[in-house]
Specification:
Blueprint lengths: L2 E7 L3 H4 L1 H6 L4 H9 L5 E7 L9 H5 L3 E5 L9 H12 L3 E5 L6 H7 L6 E13 L13 E11 L9 E8 L4 E10 L2 E6 L12 H14 L30
Parallel strand pairs: 1-2, 1-3, 3-4, 4-9
Antiparallel strand pairs: 5-6, 5-7, 7-8, 8-9
Helix pairs in contact: 5-6
Length: about 250
Amino acid sequence: MSIRVTVWGENVHDQRHQLVKDIYPRGMHSCIAEALNTVPGIKARTVTLQDHEHGLTEQVLDETDVLTWWGHAAHGEVRDDIAARVADRVLKGMGLIVLHSGHHSKVFKRLMGHNCDLLWREAGEKERLWTVNPGHPIAQGIPAHFELAHEEMYGEPFGIPEPDELVFISWFQGGEVFRSGATWRRGAGKVFYFRPGHETYPTYHDATVKKVIANAVAWAKPECRFGWGCPNVPADKALEPLTVHGGSVH
């Protein structure tokens, strides 16, 4: 059975800025989904901020194994209840891949429990990504290092909790470094943050970047689906016979 991927795109820069339109005529989300759909065993579709419930209805999430998220200019326009819905699905087993400026999305900050702040500079400088965990599934087929000719700089400190696993770090032409590929487990779900992807550069056309995202999808697919909650277990349903003494008031 194919891994069902929903590619979420903010789709704001894609519509408003001609340079972004020139690089991604069908939007960044479409570029990412089209690349994933060339990978055997992956079936990707797109939804955007402008869709009903931002495209993240209960039905859509029911049909999603892994969600990718790119946002930047309109983090505040994402409804709180939708962000909570997505985070809850991650806790229950759905995979989440957060791309570039999605570090400040409501969903990512909610799951990280941190401000997710960082340093940044837009100067079109070279980024060299180092594979620091070559044995990780996300790093399979990825060289020891690869370069993007032009990217936005993100620099440390990065306001995230200590990653469970660090897969990539970046060095920038201006001298900064950054934890650019990191994973966490949240509940029954897996989260991967991948740094590259500023909208005014053709990053999502890069073959190695596409390979990383496809690997991340395969890694983040659900291992199980778990329904969290606090169900009451009545005394007469206990595994062993009970004599009830007192109780609590709710």
